[in-house]
Every structure is written in C-alpha cells, then in structure tokens.
C-alpha cells in the first residue's frame, strides 16, 4: 500500500483513503532564503516532515506541498532581495489555496487540514478557504454537508511558556519575537532533527539586522536586513532542541487533528 | 487653515501640505463587532484618534480612514456571524490599498504612513503597497525618486514588557494573546480614553469563548466564539490604562514617523 | 439609543435595527477636488448629510460612507491631476460595493439603499450589486427571499424642470449640463446649506475649462481642464438655493425609499 | 485597395494605413433587445454604420466592432430578462477595451477613437483606456510619445436644443430622457435611415414601463420594464428624422475627430 | 423570417428559436495576420461561414462572432509583431467566454456549440465554459437541468488520414504540422472557397520561418518568424481543396452537432 | 556542493549558480489520475526526472516543480471526476507562472526554461510568461537586458516519425493521438524507466472511452471517459521503450537548451 504521499498514490488509492475518512493534510510554506546554512525549502520541508510523522499515527493523505508562498518580507524573512527567494503575490496564493482546497473536497475528502509554516501566508490561507466555501466548493459531493477545514496558521501558538523557555534559555538576547526567529534557533534546530543532511553545520552563525523596527519601510533600508539572511541567533540551535520541539509539535498537532477532525488511526 | 483631516481640506491646501513635506497618515481598520459596550468603529476610530494626536506634533495630512477591513475571523474578532460586522474580501482590501497609496503618491506626498488596527489586515496592506510600487505608482511625480511608505501593521509590537505588565497585571488570566485581546482590556481602555462618549460602561462585562484553540475550523463550532463578542476580560479596562497607553503609542509613533520619514513639525 | 450612524452603534443595536426593518442607507462618493472653496469630501459628505436628514423621518442605519470613488475624469471632476483627488480604479470600487452590500445583507438588513454622489461611479455600483446577487450574497440569511437593493445613482434625475429653473435661472450661461456642474452652483449651494463650516466663501469664484468638448481625449489637453477645478459658475450659489435643494432631495428620497423599501418611521 | 474594415484588410494594408496616420475608429456597443421591430445589433450596428460614413471623409481603419457590452439595465435597456440580450460583466468589458486599445497602439496607430453606443458602457471604456495607459500600452512603439485616444462616450451630448426639438417635437410626451429613449424615436429613426432592411416596420409600436422611477431596484419589479422592450414612443420615428440625425452625427464626429486627431482625408 | 444571424434577429425571434430547440452556434476566432494575401479576419470569418452553411441544415442561431482571440504566438500565427494582429490577454478571453455562454443559457438556449478557429484559444474556451458552469450560469432558467455545451476546439481533429493526404499530397514538404499551417494550404484553400472576394490571389506565395523549433523563446528571435506571416506553403492552395474541405467540415460538424445536441432541422 | 534541486540549495549557492550562467529549469505538470497503475504525480514527476538527467550535462538549477496544473479535461486526462485529480483554474496557473518566472529573473537567472508535461497547461504558460514580461519582471536586475525564457510546451513535438513508429508499432490501434495517449504507452513506459518503484505493474491494463469524439461536451457523458482512467493501450508499454524515449528526450532537450540558452556544462 502506497502512501501517505498523494503524489505516490493512484486515484483508486486516494479514493479508498478518502472514503475511509482520512484527512487531507496539506503543507503550505515558501521558497525563501534561510541563511547560508539552511536550504531554501525550510518553510515547506518542515511542515512536510512533521506531516510524515503525524501520518504514522493518523490516517492522513499528504497532497503535494505548496512550495511557493507569499512575498517574503524584510523583517521576517529577509525580503525579496535574496537570490533564490521565490514568492507569489498574495492574490496568487489565495487562488491556489481556494482551488486546491476545493479540489480536495471534490475528490471526496471529508476533512482537510492546512499546515502553514510561513508568516507571510497569514490571513491568505483563511481567505482561500473562505472563497472556496463561498463558491460552494466545500460541500461534500455525497451531499453529506460541509467539508471540515482546519487551518493551522501559526504552529507556535501552541507552545507553552515552559517550552519557550527551553528553546530560548541559552540565547543571549532571549526570545527575539517570532518574525526575527528566522533561520535561527527554532528552524535550525528543527532542520537538525528532521533533515540533518540539508544543514551546513559549518556555516551556522548568528546574525541580525542592525535595527529591528516595529514597522516596515519601503524602499527597505539596508540596516533593516541582516546580510546573511539569519535574523537572530542560529548558533544556539541543537539537535536536542529540534527533536524535542518536533516531538512536541507532532503531539500537539496529532491531538488537535484528532479532536477537530477525528480521522481513523494510521493504516 | 483647515486640517489635518484631508476630507476637510481643499485641493490647494493639500497641495501646499504635500509640498511642505507633510506625511499622509492613513488609518486602516475595520467595521467589526466589539461586544455590547463598544461601537463597530473601534478598529478605525482608534487609529484615527491616535493620528489626530500625532498631528499635534508632526505635520501630517489624514486621508479618510479605511473603515472596512478584511474578513473578521472567529478567533480574533468573533467572525462574520455578528450583525454589523461588515468586511471586505482580502483581494478587495489589497486593491483599495494599492489604489489609495498610489494616489497619495500621485498627489505629491513624498512620504506615507499606513496605520493599521485590525489583525486580519496583516500582510494585505503590505501586498497593496508592493503592488503600487511594482506598478510604478510610488515614484514621485517630480522625478525625485521613490515615495517612502511606512507600514505600522501591529502597533503592539512596539510595547515593552513593562508596559504589557501594566496593562494586564490585574487581569485574572493575565495576557490572553493579542488575537483574544478583542473588545477587552486594551481596546476598552483606549476607547475610554479617546472616545468615552461611545463606550456603554454599564454593558462592560467579561466573556470568552468556551475554548481557544490554536487553529481555525470551518464551519466554526459555536464554542470557538464568545456569545457577546468580547473575547477576554473587558472589566479590567480603565481610563487610566487607556490614557497611559494612548500617550505611549502616540509617543512611539511620533518618534518612529520622525525617524523614518522626517516630516516638519505640526504647523 | 445610539444611531443612525453604524460606526457609533454596537452590534446588538445594529441587530435590533435590522430586525425592526431599518434600511441600511449607504453613501458612496469620492475624494475629489472641488475647487479652492470646497473640501475634497463634497461627494461623500453631501450624501451623508442628506442621509442624516432622512434618518429623522425613516428608520435607517448609515454604514460608514465610501469616501473613495472611481477615477475622477477631466470633464466632470477635473481629473487626476489635482493633488488631493484620491480615486479607486473601477474594479476596486466594484468589489468594495459587492462586498459591503453583501455583508449588509448577511448582517440581517432586509433592504439596502445605495446613495451615490459621484458621476464616475455610474454603472459600477450597479455592477457591484449584481455581482453580490449572482454570488448569492443578497439572499436573506433567514431564508426570507432576496434582500431588496435600491440604487440612487443620479439624484438629479429626480429634479423637475421648475426646480432646474430655480437653480440655474440667474446663471449667465444657464444650466451647463451635469458633468460641468462640478463645484459650481448645485454643490456649492448644498454645502452652504449642509456644512457651511467647510465652505471658504471668500474663495468662491467662477471658472470653466477653455473648451468643453463632448468627448474625452487622452492625454488630456490643458484646455479641457479649468485651472481652479471649478467647472462652471460657483458664484451663483446661495444658502437659499442649497436649503431648498436639500429639502427637495430629502423629500424625494424619503418618499422613494418609503415607496420602494417601506421602512418603519424613525425611532 | 481594401478597407476601411480592418477585418477585410491584410496586415501590410493596416500597416500602411497606420503609417499614413489613419485613425483606428472602433465601435463599442451591445447585443441587447430593442423591441419587436429592431434587431439585437442596434447598439453596435449604428456606430458601425456611422463609422462607415465617416470613413468616406477621413482616413480611418475600422476594427471589428465590439458586439457585446456591459449588462443591460432595466431602466435603460430592458435589462437581462429579454432573450437575446447578451451582456458582459463590467470587468470583462473593461479588460476587452484595455487589451484592444493597447493592441491597436502596438500595431502602429498613432490615434484611436472609441465610439460608444450603449449607456451601460459609460465609465467602463474610460477605465479600459486608463488601464492601458497605466500599463504603458499607449506609448507609440516608434518612441514618438503617447498615442492619442478619443472617447466618444455619449454621442447625444453633441446635440443642440434645436436638434432635440426636431427629434421630439411630435412626441406626445416630449423627450423622455436618454435612458428611456431606447428602441424609440432616435434609434428607430436611425435604423430606418441606416439599415432599413433590418427594421420590421409593421411591428413598430409605442410602449413604456408602467413607472419610470429615478432609481433602480433589485429584484426588478415588473412595472419597471415595458413588456415589449420599447421604453418610449417608437411610432414617431421616421426615415427623415433618421437621415437628418445621421447626417448631423457624421458631421459632428468628422469635425471632432479632425480637430482632436487630425487624420488625413479618406484615401 | 430573419436569421440565423442573431445580430439581425429581434428578441421575440430569438426567444422563439430558443424555445424551438435551436442551438446557439458561436464562432470564436482571432484578428490575426494571415500573410499578404488573406485578411485579418480569417480566424473568425471561416467559422462564421461554416456556421452559415450548417444553418442550412440545422436550426441554429449564430451570435456575433468573437473577433478577438488570445495572443497570437510567433510559431503558430506570427506573434504580436505584425500590425493588425489584435489580441486579448488570456484572462480577458476566458471572461468573455464565461459571460457570453452564460448569457446564451440565460436567454433560453438549451444547447450551445462553440466553434473555435484559433490555436491560441485552446484551453481558454474550456475554462470559460467551466467558470460559467461553476457559477451556476449553465442551469436552464426553466429548471430543466443543465444546458449542454459543445466545444469544438480543433476542427482538424476530425480529419481522416485520407483527407490529410488529399490536402497536402502536392506540398513539397508535406504536412508541416498544424501550428505552421497558418495562412497556408488549408486556410488559403478555405478562403478561396468561402470568401474568394477577400483573397489577394496575386500575392499568394510560400514562406516559412528560417527555423521551426519545438519550443518558444522570449524574446522571439527573428529567425523564428516568417517575414511575410505565411508559415508554410500557401501556393498549393486551391479552390477545389477549399470546397472539398469546407464540405467535409460542414458534414462532420452537422453530424456531430446533431448527435450531441439534437437540434431540429433548419426552419 | 548541493544541487541541482533549488529546494536543497542555500541562497548563496543559488546566487553563485545564477551568476555562473546556470539555467533555471522549471517543471510544470499536474496532479492528475493516471489509471490504477500509475501515481497521480506522473505529469510533474516525469519532467522532474528528465530535468535531473539534463542536470548531469548542463548547469541548471531546478526550482520546486509545479505539482498542480490546469483543470484535467475528460478527453485528455479523464477530467475532474477522479478522486485525487487536483487542478487549478486557468487564471490561477497563469498567475503562478507569472510570479515564479518573474521571481527567478529577479533572483539573477539570466535564462529560464519551462518544461511542461500536461496538455491542459497549453497556452497558459505562455500567458504567464508574457504577463511577467509586460510587467517588466523579465528584465535582468543587473541591467543586462531581457532574461531569456524558453517554453517547452509539448515535448512530443520533438519526436520524429521513426520514433513514433517505434513507440506505437505494436499497438493494436496504432497511435491514438496525443490526448488519448494518457496513462498509456508513452507515460507508462517512461515511468517504468524513470520511477519503476511507483508503477503497479500488476494493474497495467488497456482501456479506452467508449467513444472518442473530436469535441467536448458539458455535462460530460459517461461514454466519453474510460472508467479506469487509462485512455488507450497501456499494456504495450515497456522498460525498453521508456529508456529509449527518456534518452531521446534528454538528448533533444539538452541540445535545445544549449542552442537557445547556452548554459555552462554541469559543474
């Protein structure tokens, strides 16, 4: 039996999974610079790896991750000036979400979970889901009422204070706020745990923008962007932090998906 | 001399102000339920009132506030089920911002500040500004290079820990997170300070949703939404908190606008 | 009891008004130059003031006026070259109207009236309403059938010949046609009656474009635009004309709204 | 030499005409009911026939007329309920105009005239032209600066009072206003003069809606629409009126095009 | 009785035809260079002429042909560099199709056939039809279920090998593939048969691009485009080929329309 | 050194590759049923695998493949009724292409190749590229003129007759035309060669729709779609055919990319 990657499944296999009540668990991320030590795929690879772990517990089907996200912004991802950062305009992403979510519903999935890992996608995924709903695309084709759609827009909203402390206790400046936590402790740790083959350990180094204003400015002044693309302390990342964080997130998401969408156990 | 409200100014007056280096300071908010004790205009009235205070110090022109914002979401504003909540689709708001910002630039303003007070507008204002820039609409008509645009997307990003403590020290559950801080301590306090005539004090009461998940679910379960529309503790609001907070915000924004856009002092 | 301004009402108050059969009476205008003697808000302030007078007779709720309208055109508003004129592209306005009208219907209003005061909005308001209808957004949430929407696109279509004569009898060139009647007799008179605080009387002066062709030309030749932004005779405006005209319009609109939408009397 | 119809010309012939300074004269109309006696093509056939007459005097090239226009409205064209009325949404028409005008400029025409004959297209043609201009599509490919675009939005704006009197002197109710002058005296007369083969004379009859309000209402009440689709007095139409009117319009348009765009005489 | 051209019919005539079960047979083409010997209208004139022949056998109504199609591409139509080629962007054409097809259904036609003659329109017509269906615009107004829509995207898909041999047997290079068969044997022959008045016989000449790659390149290299706009052998065209081909196509389309949509015989 | 997959590279690595003249080689496909024996990813996996082989010879960077393509159509891919088929609307795909191609150019790539493997994407990729060009997004950021974009829309256009004969010589019905060659000889052979782990050999079986009309019909009659999703003879597929075909395509594409874009050899 192939799965849980939809791209490796045939249509009768997807059909059977959807009929069995599997959740379509779709990762949405970005292709965005993450410093000299992390690949451009961090924002779509992390949710994909987490999804694969969730798939060991719950019956889910994983559609092809959305590798392109909304415009990278200077204060939270370095912005558009880094080669390799490849973004969509907001309207494009909204339409992608509207279409894909609607098509998953048309394919027979009775519940869908969207797992986001890119701050610049906030509000756009919700919009895409709402547009699909308004168009009638989230009604079950079997007449069984609305398809349920779960949106996990910011995973870190699920973190407790204790967990935050563990993550940032040895950081010289403490928790820098989520926007600046880019290519830094959390993401580097997670990549060390989930895809160590893609981390250039020898290139891990701290960096930060000269200033971190609470506002954006266009055109972007150079002092608002760190030259390396690392926006805070990457050097305090560790495999241990990554493993614990990954386990924690998988637990939380598994519990939340079970609670909200009630899928069968993994086959 | 009329001003700083653009709606009360004539075109030669706007022309003179723009030539003098005034900043166009535009409020973007929402028309959204804020419980039984606050009016629907909280999200566009607060930034407007703050702008009027800033106008006492800096030379700014205040275009008509954008009263309609992006879709209210259940976990941060109660969502679309409350009568009176009147929202725009995301694409609509993006285009409004693109057009208005571009027109202010065409009108001769060399710097523009966008002051947002609605979480659901996050990322959309940035998109609108970028679309205007890409279309060439943010080039100064006098050939003087790009118009500078400042986006204040989340004012509370400017708050220090001490200030947060002051605000939430007497709240039974402490700081509930910004999404849930809707029609609660911060906004009620500010309205008590800025527009007390619009606060129904006798109706101030705490409320909260039965559950506060870290994810959204469509269709929205009733337990995700507080029946009154108040998502946390409104009863701990006070005029004193509001005054201190308003003063603090006005100070911060005045300093930030001066730093980033360098307008003349108020005429 | 607050009202009729929706921005000053709470959601339970709006809910009660909608249930009681109140009409949502929405002004749509523009932010457009009106010469050196009138403010940029003429096109959204006049319908708002008229609405407030109607609200003394009929039970209406007044949502935040739409201050930005479609592109000002040279022959009817001076066009885009005047600082302060701040317009939306046509598609933007259409979507704003589609969304707002649909949201008012979703909020429980069983009837909506759209009051326009900007010639360049013609056909766009109708399009927005039709798009909302096509999307199913104008069905009553209580299943009671379609929400009724009244569009008052050109108020002056309601004027009789006698009334036109009164307005223009002492004008040297007579009635110049509605497009050229911009910042001239009608609008200056109405502002003198409705918002005299915003009229710079000492700056009232006649003007007109060197030529008034029956066609538009792009790029706009300078002789098609009056330098002051006044397109005809403003000097023949008077408080008396304004009062009579305002009274007449309020009477006509009150009668028409009653006839078409049958709201209760003002509470 | 073929011409002036672009559809009958080859590309080298169009090239030669554009280089010689010919004006691209494009008709935009509608496919809309015009009662039982006139064909659905009235609104695109009349401007086409007028263009052919202009082409005897001025060097013009006539691109394929735009047969589909914006939504027919009940008070000015009977609305969407008549079989055969085939309309575009506003946004569609705007984009058609943007593209076609831009392409004519790209093809080498240094001046373009758009001749409209459908009230519901008002403002949309202007928007399409402006969008083309903003996109840079109205710059001459030879670097010679902006292409000139003339928009004749309402031909009847060119009529004098004397001419109006001639047209409507024997009408029982006089001039009913342009919106109601649909399939009535003016259009029937013009068709009798320009395309008598398409007029069903035996079916010419007066009609009118039971009421003619100054506002639109959705859903449209039946009494707002004349059952036949004729909105005023068609029986007072005559070949003589049509001939005189056609001659007058051709004279006016020829003079205006000459004045504004200065094309060579017809080849 | 007027017909089958909808532009010559009145609304009651269209109504009667639709009620009688007539098919709306709509031609979609392009305005695109076809060398020095053929007019720009080839792509919308050929399907129109074929439709008129079909109308002698089946009861069809022919709406105004869509004269503007999607962007001409260098390898299949010479591309945008030829004066007179007047194209729409893809999104524009999709919306035109969505609107027109939906309006024909609203007008009472129970079946619609779309006849395309422009390779660059491929997939866009299908999209337009699907968008109309998704919007609910292809439901019969009488509640009789879905309107049937037939899309004839590439007529030559109906040709047999024998027919291909007849067409290209005397061509020096044989069948060059359909994209290159532009303004060449097939189209020139058909025009010689259908509209010989529009063929400049003395200008018929072979041409071809210097290279015919299997890929497109932007910017287009000059060697990818034939200078004359003729992409293959036009000189082997003949009236006989055109007559036979036209007869064959009309037979095939008549049979296919009968089979799929079952209209009455021509009245 | 990581590569050629952009998702595994860091931003400095992409920067270096782009500066060295590497081509961005982007696969665009679909997620579409391919019968019971092939996975849903065939249309994006095949071009990705081919790209990886090309990367052994030429210096290319491979951005994340576009896994979602335009609507599957019944006659060429089975259409939307198969679970797992997950399509985008045409406008969505066009915008994705516009954005991604523009971003690759902004990232410093001086040449881009788009490799398509989904018939329903035809014309849409070209549109996306043109929109990026029109918006100025295909100008090199270093001022070096236009970025070159190669579009390989239909790879099989590069096949010779001899190669077609080899592929289809033992097929009972011969070559069925490319639309019907879905999940059949060509694609099954290629998957057997490129990704044998994903082919369910025991489920390979021939199928075909009961009829194969040359036109589309909406709603789709069941006899137009093969129940299994295989539209022709899959059983004649073989590893040998797949290997030969893959080698041939890689040779052709390598040669074509070299010729058109002239990248360095693989590093």
TrEMBL record, chains A, B, C, D, E, F:
GO terms for biological process: creatine biosynthetic process; creatinine catabolic process; riboflavin biosynthetic process. Signal peptide: none annotated. Its cofactor is Zn(2+). It comes from the Bacteria. Keywords: Hydrolase, Metal-binding, Zinc. Its EC number is 3.5.2.10. GO terms for molecular function: creatininase activity; hydrolase activity, acting on carbon-nitrogen (but not peptide) bonds, in linear amides; metal ion binding. Belongs to the creatininase superfamily. This is Creatinine amidohydrolase. It comes from Patulibacter medicamentivorans.
């Amino acid at each position: 039996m192939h799965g849980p990657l939809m791209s490796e499944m045939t249509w009768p296999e997807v059909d059977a999974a959807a009929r069995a009540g599997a959740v379509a668990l779709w990762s949405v991320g970005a292709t965005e610079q993450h410093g000299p030590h992390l690949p451009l795929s961090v924002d779509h690879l992390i949710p994909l790896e987490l999804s694969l772990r969730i798939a060991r517990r719950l019956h889910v089907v994983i559609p092809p991750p959305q590798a392109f996200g909304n415009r990278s912004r200077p204060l939270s991802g370095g912005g558009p000036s880094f080669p390799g950062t490849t973004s969509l305009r907001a309207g494009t992403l909204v339409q992608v979400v509207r279409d894909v979510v609607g098509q998953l519903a048309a394919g027979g999935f009775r519940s869908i979970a969207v797992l986001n890992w890119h701050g610049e996608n906030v509000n756009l995924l919700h919009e895409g889901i709402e547009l699909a709903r308004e168009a009638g695309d989230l009604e079950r084709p079997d007449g069984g009422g609305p398809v349920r759609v779960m949106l996990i827009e910011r995973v870190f909203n699920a973190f407790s204070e204790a967990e935050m402390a563990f993550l940032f206790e040895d950081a010289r400046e403490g928790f820098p706020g989520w926007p600046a936590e880019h290519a830094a402790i959390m993401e580097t740790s997670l990549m060390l745990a989930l895809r160590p083959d893609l981390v250039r350990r020898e290139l891990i180094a701290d960096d930060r923008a000269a200033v971190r204003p609470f506002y954006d400015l266009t055109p972007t002044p150079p002092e608002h962007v760190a030259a390396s693309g690392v926006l805070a302390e990457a050097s305090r990342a560790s495999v241990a932090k990554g493993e614990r964080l990954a386990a924690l997130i998988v637990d939380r998401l598994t519990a939340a998906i079970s609670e909200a969408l009630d899928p069968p156990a993994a086959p």
